[in-house]
Batch of 2 targets.
Target 1
Amino acid sequence: MKNENFKFDWPLVGNTHITEFLGKSIVGERLSSVYIFNGPDNLGKTTLANYFAQILLCSNRSGGPCGQCPSCRSFLLKSGDNLDLGNAHADFFLLKKEKDRKNISVEQTRDFIRFLNMSSFVGGCKVGVIKHADSLSTEAANALLKTLEEPQANTVVILITKDADRLPQTIVSRSQVLNFRLVDTDTIYSYLADKIGVGRGDAKNFSRLSLGRPALALKFWEDQEFRNKYENRVEMFLTFLRQDVNGRLSALDILFDKKIQGQEAVTLAKRTLEVWQGVVRDFILLMFNHNNLVQHYQVENIGRLNLSLADWLHFLRLCQQGEKYLNANVSPKSVLENIAINI
C-alpha cells in the first residue's frame, strides 16, 4: 500500500494512538511478526484484531478491507465483536479457550502452530489470533515460543490479553506490545448517542456503567439479557445490605443454581465481585459528594446509607480477598458465602 494519506475506518472507540500506529505500519509496510493487544477486557481489542486481519488478508489491498473479494466475504460469514468466525478463512486461525477450561492447552496450541507453518492458501499473508493469551498453559506458551523465535514470512500473530505480565517475558520481548487504555465517559457517550443512535438517557447510563470500556457499553445496549443479569447483581448487593446472614446465603443459593459449575461458576463469581466493588466505590464517592462520578444509577437513586467509610472499606477488602481466593481455586460459591457472612 503506497497511499500515505489513506484513512482507515477503524471499528474502535478511543485508543487512536493504536489505530494510528497500525495504520502507518500498514501503509509503510512495516508490520511486526507478533503483536500483543494488551489492556482491560471490553475495550474493543478483539474487534480491532478482526479488522486488522481483514485488511492484511484482503485480496485487493487498496486500503481498508474491500468487502467484496473472497477473503473479505469469508470474514462476513459470521459477525460479532467476539471474532467467532469459526475459522472460515483458510489463512486465518482463531485460538481461544475451550468451554469450561481454565487454560488454553498445548494440544490446541500445536494446532495453531501447524496452521502458522503451512503455506498461505492464496499465496499471501496468514494471520493467527490467540484470544485470552494470558491463559496459555505453561506447556502451551513454551511451544508457541519456539515458533515465535523463527516466525514464518508473511505471517502475523496477534496475542490478545488483559495482562501481558502473565505471558513469559521471552514472548513479550519478541512482540510489538500495544497497550489499550480506558476510554473517557464523554467519548463513549457520544459514540452511543451520535453514531449508534442510543437515546440520551440510556447513553448516559451505559457510558457510566461501562467504566471506560466501550465494547461493554455497547453490549449493555444490544443485549437485554446481559444487562438484566448485571443489574440483578447490583440489586443483589443492595439487598445484602438490608438482609440478615440467612437472607444473604439464600440469595447465593439462587445465584448458584445446580446448573452452574466449573469455570462458568468461577466467571459468575468474578463478575459478581466486580459489580459489588463498583457499588462500594459508588457509595464512597457519594460520601465525598462526587455524585457525577457514580457508576450505577441505582446507587445514585438510593443515596447515602447509614454506614461509615470504615464499613465500606471493609466490604471492599472482603471482595478483593475473594478475588484472590478465586484465583487460588477456592469454590466460587464458598468465596461469596464468606463475604455474605462477614459483611
Note: The first strand starts at residue 34 and ends at 38.
Target 2
Amino acid sequence: MPQQEEINRARIELDLLLRGFQVSRMLRLVADLGIADYINPDDNLSLSDLAADCGVQPQPLLRILRALAAFAIFAIAPDGSVSHTPRSRLLRTDASNSMHHAARYWTAEGPWKAWDKVDVALTGEMIPHEAAWGMSRFDYLQANPGEARLFDAMMAHFPDDRHTAIAAAYDFSGARLIADIGGGDGTTLHHILTRFPTPSGLLFEREDVIRSIPHDKLLGGRISLVGGSFFESIPTGADIYMLTRVLHNWPDADCLRVLRACRSAMKPDALLLLGEQILEPDPADGRPTDYLLDVQMMVMFGSARTRTESEFTSLLANSGFVMRRIVPTRSPVSLVEAVPA
C-alpha cells in the first residue's frame, strides 16, 4: 500500500494538473499583452511601469504575475519589480524557438471552445470542433484569418524545434527540387535550403496560406509557391516530397488520398519523407506531449490521430509506397522515408 506521504504528494501533483487550464489561460494573457518583451532579458522593470506599458491596472497584473512566478514564470522582487526567469524568457518574441505564439494559440478561442466539447468524441456523435463551431477546423481557419495566422506562427515556432532538427538530421544535398506539401509558411523548407545551398524548394499550400507568405521568406527566389488542394493534385517533378506534420491532421481515408496524390506526382526514383511523431503503443515508453497531440487531433478532426510505426507502414503500403527507414531527429518528430513500390 502507498505510504501517506506518497499519497499526499500525488494529491498535490494531481491538484496542479486539474488547475492547468488556469495557468494556460494566464500565459495567454501575458503573451497577448507582450509582457515578456517589455522586460529586458537581464534586467527588471517596476510593476507600475510594466502596467503602464501594457495599459492595465497594476494590482490585477501583480496577482497574475505572482501566480505565474509560483511556477517559475517571471520573478517578482520584494520591491515589486519584475524580472525574467529561464521560462519567461522563452515567451519573448525574439527568443530562439519562442513559445510566445504557443502561449497565445493553445487557449485561443477556436481550440478553447472545441476542448469544451471533447465529450462528444467518446460517443462518435460529432467531432468536438464541429460541435463547438458548426464547421470543420479548416473552414474555421479560413473564416478567422487572425487565428489562422496565429496557428501558422505557432507552427513556425513550435517548441519541438523540428524545423532545424529535420534540416540537421537528413542529407538533402542530392536533391534538385524539394516539394514541401502542406508546409504552412515554409519554415521547414527555409531551414533546409539555408543548410543545403544546392536544391530549390517548392511550397504547396492552401491559397489563403500562400497569399500570406512574405516575399522575404522565399530566399531570393529559391522557393516557389503553388496554391491548391493536396486532395486534388500535387505538383510534379520534385526529387523529394515532404509532408511534415500533415497526416496526423487527417483520418486514414484522407491520408490515403494525399499519399496516392503524391505517388501519382512522383518519378520512380523520387523519395517521400513524412515528418511525424511516432506514437509509442505503451504510454510508459512515450512522451506525454505525443499523447496530448493525439487527443488534440481527435478534438479538432475526429478520427485524425498520431500514429504508431505499424500504422504508418500500413498507410504507405496501401498507397503504393514501401517504408525504407525511420530517421530520428533531435526533436520529437522523426522522418519516415519511403519510396514508390
Note: The domain at 155-340 is CATH 3.40.50.150 (Rossmann fold).
